[in-house]
Amino acid sequence: MAKKEQDLQKVVEKAIAQQKVPHVKFKGIDPKNIDIARLTKPSKETKQERWGKGLTFLAIALIGILIVAIIGFVGIHGLATFFDNKVNIFHFLFSSDWNPSAGNNHVGAAAMIVTSFAVTLLAALIATPFSIAVALFMTEYESSKRAGLLQSVIELLVGIPSVVYGFLGLTVVVPAIRTIFGGTGFGILTATLVLFVMVLPTITSLTVDAFKAVPKELRKSSAALGATKWQTIFHVVLRAARARIMTAIIFGMARAFGEALAVQMAIGNAVLMPSNLVSPAATLTSQLTSQMGNTVMGTLPNNALWSLALLLLLMSLFFNFLVHLIGKKS
Amino acid sequence: MRKSNLSKVLVVFLIILIFLVGCSKNNKKITIVGSSALQPLVEQAGNDYHLSHLDSNIVVQGGGSGTGLSQVQAGAVEVGTSDVFADTQKGIDGKKLVDFPVAVVGIVPIVNKGVGIKSLSRKQLAAIFTGKIKNWRQVGGKDLPIIVINRSRGSGTRTTFEDLILKGQEAVNSQEQDSNGSVKKIVNSTPGTISYISFPYANDSNIQKINLDHVKPINENIRTNKWPLWSYEHMYTKGKPNKATAAFIKYILSKKVQQDLVPKIGYLSVHEMEVTRDSQNRVMKIGN
Question: Do A184 and B186 touch (CB under 8 A)?
Fold first, then answer.
């Protein structure tokens, strides 16, 4: 018997000896033949606890490693453009001469950066008033039962795959724009309209949550002061929900910025600095999807695409950071 | 009870894992990755091959010529397929790869039906794609601005087109599409557009095929290089192919596939060619 267990046995015996009240004998439990081995070993519950903790920690560790690996991988390949291929980073950000296979003086992503921001901002700009109006109707004017129905319809829109939106854009929006404005029908405007439909549900459902989070007391006090429904909405509800609405818009913008397939089908993929809204252009994502199969790993054209990916990653980090910042401020 | 459930799940996972590992160690497996143009042919051939060789396991994936070449160079797959010669690609060491041209495919310029043009010279075609000619009137068509729809930069079709028609000139920066299908759809529906697609997709009365220097875009003319716009479909292996891979490539080059399946998909058999072309675009008559 191990020394530790002998010590324990002694402690138990000593305790029994010092006991003033005579020891009560239970069935199966006897201080004389106490199961020291069982007492010193971790119980079933402790084991369970360790298992649970271990499993959850393993999952977290795995996710952590994955994130670090992804960021590291994209970073290494994306930065290779600047370190290995000696592309000037300012040239990359501010030139719109994009032809990486022609050499490192032709790696300018400005046209794509501008287009990406243009479609994102425009889509958010069109979608936000709509979303706020729809959300107001659902929370302030409609009974909660029918609002629930509307909510599920909107959530249905979120679930539609982006390729379906792109396909609709290609067969409906592109010919429409072509008939109205001439040209090919591909361009920033077409992409914006497609993205508008795609970000609408995201912004709407988050805005609905924002209005629902405004305490009922505020509305009641406003009504008690004699404010009409519209005055209450305008001066109280909208104001109180401001920060959360901003968060909703940023989430919508993050989705629009990262959307690849639908935009690629609607924008025309011409790496040109956009001069108007109805001429073909290309976003960071559309260029990535249309080019990645045609480049050879490790060459400049491939590294240049990784740089675009890195830029996208940084932008999405920035959007996340904005959301956190707004959340802290409110 | 919970604990035993957990261990059951773990055991199932373990079995699946062992199964997967076992699969990947299967020596008979041939993975073929790359050119999406060649994918339907290889897929079909792979299925037919499996009927006569039940122990074969052929996996065909697209991804583009660039992906095919870099994957086979890295040794990640047995065969990389490509529309372009490996040694014309930067970052690929053509000497380490063994080239098996398995089919020939033609490329034809197409225009929207409304431009009023049926034939162009090679010079005119080059001038259009470099942006020097901007209106269809300049080449005898209607008074309509020319809209160039190019193919994705670095794609096999575009590389071939630029090598043979533009000959080193820079193409005008224009709209790009990466699939034959969408190019055809856009050219069909947009006035004033011009693009180019591969032969199998061109049999469509909604678009206007263009004769080059009055030569018709048909397979008979490719055979003698009278129609100059064509490319090989390559299968590349890293060094000498292993036994199973070699057997499959041999099958693709066999009469059965070359005379039956290849024309059915719209390609031309390599055995029917009266000329060859190397990576420097030098054309040579076979037999001379």
Answer: yes
